[in-house]
Structure formats: C-alpha cells, structure tokens
Amino acid sequence: MHIAEGFLPPLHAVGWTVAAAPFVVHGARAVVKEVREHPENTLLLGAAGAFTFVLSAIKLPSVTGSSSHPTGTGAGAVLFRPPVMALLGTVVLLFQALLLAHGGLTTLGANAFAFAVVGPWAGYAAFRLTRACGGGLLPGVFVAFVVADLATYLTTSVQLALAFPDAGSGLAGALAKFLGVFAVTQIPLAIGEGLLGVLLFRVLTVNARPELERLGLLRPVAEPVQGEAR
Amino acid sequence: MSRRTLVTVLLVLGVVALFAVPLLLDGGASEYAGADGRATEVIEETGYTPWYESVFSPSGEVESGLFALQAALGGAVLGYVVGRLRGRRAGTTATPTATPTATPATAPEAP
C-alpha cells in the first residue's frame, strides 16, 4: 500500500495530505488524552503501536507470486478506537518513508489516509458490526483485522486509479488494473493477519483482563481470576 | 495438551501454512517482487515520471537490515508488554490463593 515517493501528481499529493491531516491531528490529541486520562493503558497502547510496527515491516509471499505487507492496524482500532491509529500508523509510515525509502514524504498523506485512517475505521466498523450481530470478541477481532488490511489496499488502488485513469477504459479500467496488483495478493495476507490478531487477543484476554474490561471489550466477571479453567 | 494450547498451536500452524504452502508449491519459480513495486511499474508504463525522489535511499542490503530493525523494535516492545502483563497476572493470582480467607479476589489493583 506504500505509494512510492513522487508517484502521485502534486495535486493529488496535496489533496490527500489535506484529507489525512485532520485525522492525524485528531489522532494525536486522542493519544495524548488516552495517556493522560488512563495512564494504566499506556502499556497496551505501546503494544498496539508495536504490533503495527512489526507487521508492516514484514514482507510476506502470497499465492500470486508477489509479496506484500500486512498492516496490523486492527489491534489499535479495536482496543483504542480508530483515531489513535491515525497517529500511530502515520508514525510508522514516516519511519518507513524517511529511513527505508518505502513510501514517501509526498505520498505520506495518501498512504496515511489508506493505512492509518480508512483501514482502522473499516476494521473497527466490521468489529462493531460483528459484535452487534452477536459475534464473540475473537471472531470480531478476526474480522476487524482482515477488513482493516483489505480496506487499506482497496483505498490505495482507488487512490492510484484516480491519479492514473486508463487512457482507454478510464477510471474503472485503472481501478481493475491496480486491484489486480494488490487485491488478490493481499487476501491470504489479510487472513494471516486475522489469525495473528486472534492469537494476540487470546494472550490479552488472559493477561490484560482488567484493561480490556476498562476499555469495554470484555464484561467484568463477578469473581475474576478464581476458578479459571485454563 | 489442554484445549487452549491446542487452539494456539493450530492458529500458529495456520499462519505458517498460509505463507509456507504457496512458497513450497511454487518451488522457487516466482521472484516475489513487492506489490508496491509492481504498482509503480504499472504507473511508469503510462509514461509518468516521478517528480520527487526519496531523501534517503538505502541500498538493498541496508534496506533489508533496516526493515529487520523495524520488526525487531516492534517485536521487542510487544514482547516487553506481554511479558510485563503476564508477570503482573502471576503476581496478582498468587496473592489471593496465598490468603484464601480475606479479600475474595477483588478486582486486581492496577499499578
């Protein structure tokens, strides 16, 4: 999903930066507020950021014979709601743009919009929908991670199609072309990411139960810990 | 093996299989070029030339090292947090069992 440096026309680069900026600023305030009001959650906030950091660093092979990155933005979106991820995700992208020549400063806005805004929000919406339909926490987490990953790459495809409409087939043709590059490759990665998310939350539900209860993800039990059959 | 451990093992195996099986079936026929790179090729075919270059472009070797560094940093923080949470739980669960009469396992006081 990293649009390479200079690979968006200036007008698009500016447009996406303007679109992403308010989300990132709002996200920064959400992070500060979270840390100030709930310092006990800082540890978990670090874990959410670290999860994105690890996953977005790994290039995984896919069935299509090309490789791509997972995103890992679902964790923070489910735990702390999406605004927090707008900042954490952008920090990851900035690190990669500056040190790894992966993505870029001119495309930071577009990449942040896909990776740190649309992905987390789509994942969070999918999570809430799953829970509202009676799904458990872990199925919700799985769906959230898969959707966050796929939505990010869908957004990138749309961004590129808007910038480079096909000469013959126009916008739709270009979208099909970029989806061809990203979407199929991403499906197994998204599923893998969903499974990793379930693994992460299985660890958290046991070891960070008080935090998850405070964040409203788990219902407090009357007699915690005692009689735990695990 | 408890049911919980079994599920964990199956999940880990699932993740490994998801990425190992395509690699094995493929038998080294594919280059596994990055999808991001393929997208830039598609764009360049339209005759577009990028108007800005990366401020700092590490060579391939350095780049993979920096990617490893990124993963290592994230992994270290994640491991630290999970380790601390686990240690805290071990600490809080040990106390009520040691004193079974008083305080019937109230909510563990967070630091």
Layout of SSEs?
The complex is a heterodimer of chains A (about 230) and B (about 110).
Chain A: H1 10-37, H2 42-57, E1 60-61, E2 66-68, H3 74-80, H4 82-99, H5 108-132, H6 137-163, H7 170-207, H8 209-214
Antiparallel strand pairs in A: 1-2
Chain B: H1 3-26, E1 33-34, H2 35-45, H3 60-98
Textual characterization of the structure:
The complex is a heterodimer of chains A (230) and B (111). Helices cover 72% and strands 2% of the residues of chain A. Chain A has 230 residues and is an all-alpha fold. Chain A has one domain: Arp2/3 complex 21 kDa subunit ARPC3. Chain A has a two-stranded antiparallel ribbon with strand order 1-2. In chain A, a hairpin with a 4-residue loop joins strand 1 (60-61) and strand 2. In chain A, helix 2 packs antiparallel against helix 3 (74-80), helix 3 (74-80) runs antiparallel to helix 4 and helix 3 packs across helix 5 (108-132). The model of chain A has no long low-confidence stretch (mean pLDDT 93). Chain B is an all-alpha fold and 111 residues long. Chain B has a domain at 59-96. Chain B is 67% helix and 2% strand. The interface between A and B is large, with 77 and 66 residues.
Keywords:
heterodimer, A: 230 residues, Arp2/3 complex 21 kDa subunit ARPC3, two-stranded antiparallel ribbon, 8 helices, 2 strands, globular, B: 111 residues, mainly alpha, 3 helices
Mean pLDDT of chain A: 93
Order of helices and strands of chain B: HEHH
Structural class based on helices, strands and sheet pairing of chain A: mainly alpha
Can you summarize the main beta sheet of chain B? none
Low-pLDDT stretches of chain A are none
Structural class of chain B: mainly alpha
Approximate shape of chain A: globular
Number of helices of chain A: 8
Indicate the mean pLDDT of chain B: 83
Largest sheet of chain A: 2 strands, antiparallel
Total beta strand runs of chain A: 2
Estimated radius of gyration of chain B: 24 Å
Question: Please, what is the oligomeric state?
Answer: heterodimer
Number of H- or I-type helical stretches of chain B:
3
